[in-house]
Amino acid sequence: MKQCVNEYDEALDALTSGMLDTSDIAPYLGAIVLALKKQIPMKPEPTLISNKMLYWYRCPICHSGITKYYPYCGSCGQLLNWEDV
Fold it and tell me: For residue 17, which of 31, 28, 4, 5 has the smallest C-alpha distance?
């Protein structure tokens, strides 16, 4: 089993690996997994603006343009990790 980074990652791993009896929540499992994945921080994608050597950033999930250092994507809600960006 993979090493979990935080409680969201651990819950996601438990749900998707079959460790829990999910019969009561089966109809909602897709939404639960999607919500948990959005709470695991991901690095924004830098994108070069033409040949001006300037960068803007995109969400790694929905690829919407995002404001630097904003904690979440305004379009899809993905938690962003700006460390080392």
Answer: 4
The tokens for 39 are 């709470």
39: closest CA among 79, 69, 4?
A: 79
pLDDT digits 0-9 by tens, 3-42: 656 777 777 888 788 777 777 787 778 888 888 999 999 9
Spatial contact of 16 and 30, defined as CB atoms under 8 Å apart: no
Whether the full predicted model's pTM is greater than 0.90, yes or no, is: no
- Dist. CA 13–CA 36, nearest whole Å: 10
